Amino acid sequence: MTEDFEEILIDSQQIRNRVAELGSQISKDYAGRELVLVGVLKGGFVFLADLMREITIPVDMDLIAVSSYGASTKSSGVVRILKDIDVNITGKHVLIVEDLVDTGLTLKYLKDLFRTRGPESVKICTAFDKPSRRKVDIRIEYEGIIVPDKFIVGYGLDYAGKYRNLPDIRTLKPGIYAVSACKDGEWPEKGCMDV
Ligand code: IMP
Ligand code: MG
Question: Is the pTM of this model over 0.85?
Answer without folding.
Answer: yes
